[in-house]
Amino acid sequence: MGEFELIRRFFLPLGERQESGSLMLGPGDDCAIQRIPAGRDLVFSVDALVEGVHFPRNYRPDYLGWRALAVAASDLAAMGADPECFTLALTLPAVDEQWLEDFSAGLRRASEAFGLQLAGGDTTSGPLTLSLQVHGTVEQGGGVRRSGARAGDLIAVSGTLGNAGAALDYLSEPAPSADILAVLEHYHRPWPRLDLAGEVRRYASAAIDISDGLLADLGHILAASRVGARIASDRVPLSAALSRLKGSKALNYALRSGDDYELCVCFAPESWESAPESLKSQLTVIGAVTAEPGLYLDGVDCGLEAVPAGYDHFRGKS
Length: 318
Ligand SMILES: [Mg+2]
Fold this sequence. Notes:
Blueprint (H helix, E strand, L loop, with lengths): L2 H8 L12 E3 L7 E2 L5 E11 L10 H19 L2 E11 L4 H18 L2 E9 L3 E11 L14 E5 L4 H5 L10 H11 L5 H10 L2 E4 L4 H12 L2 E4 L8 H7 L3 H7 L6 E5 L1 H6 L2 H4 L2 E8 L3 E4 L2 E2 L9 E2 L3 E2 L1
Parallel strand pairs: 4-5, 9-12
Antiparallel strand pairs: 1-2, 3-6, 4-6, 7-10, 7-11, 8-10, 9-11, 12-13, 14-15
Bound molecules: magnesium ion.
Magnesium ion (MG) binds next to helix 2 and strand 8.
GO molecular function: ATP binding; magnesium ion binding; thiamine-phosphate kinase activity
Pfam families: AIRS (PF00586), AIRS_C (PF02769)
Pathway: Cofactor biosynthesis; thiamine diphosphate biosynthesis; thiamine diphosphate from thiamine phosphate: step 1/1
């Protein structure tokens, strides 16, 4: 199968025109065309995923299709952006029709679930690598940055943390229990918190998605905002499945393991007060921003630079 046939069969259906989107021209021309409505800003980000580094070797292609787009879409949620469209550059070691069928099915399900239409892409041969660029929009000036946290802000996180990190211990489990299946689901099918993006944009002072671990990602907010934080370990939300599986180690997964794709969000106290229950009920307040630098967990300095805190792509797990 040639490149054009491959694209026509497996990827063009993901670019079929939807009525409401900003995408004027999808796959098939030299470029895609996106019209940004007056008064809105384009928010975009690119992610590269390499087999054996960002996902396991011989990973199920339908999971990979979903996960790749979920991971990219999570960055839009962190900015408070509404999803619009994405491009995909796919490097494949060989043309395996069944693999492509399953991959594109997973990608298509994610594309529909997240409201992200395929705008275009490229395929080439080489070690399995995916690069996805996602486009979203916000009202002009409305993008939520990492740099907006101020002393006194509350720090909150969505969902429960640590599930996807714990799932890595069970990827080849032959007979997974219900608890193991529950944490595996977080790893295989993460849900970017696009459902919260609109309200985060309206009420948050700063936000980030938790891709590399709570301590590492909160650390990025603190560094960008030139502030510190105090968090209480007994407030960090853990799933019942994770607690049962990992006991006293569950908190460590929640603090230090990545791939959760939940949000960590800061709010000025008055913004939190005025935020609607629909947002607050999805979040757990775990601490507060301080003027003095440093990240303190239960009063103990986590030493942002010195202590292992998530994943560094060039140094690996420290
Ligand atoms: Mg991110």
